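pinging the channel bc i need a second pair of eyes. not urgent but kinda urgent?? the chain im working w is below, pasted from the shared doc
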Amino acid sequence: MATAIEIFKLLPKKNCGKCNFPTCLAFAMQLANQKVKLSDCPFVSDEAKAKLEASSAPPIHLVTIGSGDKKVEIGDETELYRHEKKFFHPTCYAITISDSMSDGEVESKLKRAEELSFERIGQVLTIDLMAVRNDSDNDTRFAEVVSRVAEIGLPLVLMSERPEAMKRAVEEASLEKPLLYAATEGNIEAMSSVAKELACPLALRADDLETLAKLAVHARETGVEDLILDLAPHRAKDLVEKNTIVRKNAIKRTFDGLGYPIILNVCDDERAVLKAMLATMKYGSIVLFDDLNPAHALPLFVLRQNIYTDPQVPIQVRAGLYPVNDPGPDDPILFTTNFSLTYFTVMGDVDKAKVPAWLLVVDTEGLSVLTAYSAGKLTEESVVEALEETSAKEKSTSGILIIPGLISRMSGKLQELSGMRVIVGPRESSGIPKLLRSEEF
């Protein structure tokens, strides 16, 4: 983004106030901080608009694959290091199906792919794309398999170096914006032509960055703007080096020719999971797998989830009163905070006890128990307020409130304010089942 002074030089300098700011300089300062839109100025020239839009464009081009609710967006990143702000579009994982497989093998693989789904801290972790590889060199069979895979509703990657096969598959399956993979030095002209005709994003593949940059220039000259780069790394070391070089040059705008998302193909690679982890940590946007074992998928998905959460915003769940194991009016109330990891840990341990109970989740702006207490976000008053807002004491007439052991010091005042019998629970939630099963209840 241009600085306020650079923006000011391109503004009409009328100081008319129609942008809701007294001077053009004040408007430029707001624009530099991305708090207003350039269109708020009615007198900005087309030339200035073009220059400012170019300077404010993201260093990595945004590419959309597919359409509707399950469309995938990649690119549009602005940071080299996650802690500086955050990464916006998580790495996408795709399972590849070959058109040389039998119909039974295709169905079996589709079923395995759909079963790759896990829930963690309130989020469903799964694959994002399906890919179909043209191994048969049979356009009819390729189109048939593409049509079948498209039925599960995920965006598609079409893998072939034959443009005519791509075109037929897209048209017969009525696909919207599948990724065409991949254009090389040998077929760049034909692939670019098909990508433009079908309005599809295009992947470019080359062993060296110089050749890749030339392919990108050629594709752009033919009118294809949505590009994705396959840097074709042979070793894990090459993957990290190439991905870092491309990302650093794009972010720092030292070379815009490769400012596009990165795709990694690990099909038939014995180190597929290792490379996928490196790509997830080092700027990869898509990873193509031949297959993915659930035992490998879960830690990979969790790694992605951890990297692509906003480091400045805690993951939160909705505050409220949650029944566990079908509780009634004689069952106790426990409380915790709305920090997702704390909530799901406590909820899991209460459920594990197989004892009916009510779980009160107090809004602490996503902070954990001890952090919220230390910061004044979790107080005796806030707990009582949560009890009243959820009508917890009407649903549980036992008069028992179990509090986290880490904040035992609030027990006296909380008992006085709430009028309930306060029991100090364990310091670790793993002790909750033993407490709930004790004779005390």
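so The domain at 63-307 is CATH 3.20.20.20 (TIM Barrel). and The chain has three domains: 4-56, 63-307, 320-437. — does that match what u expected or am i reading it wrong
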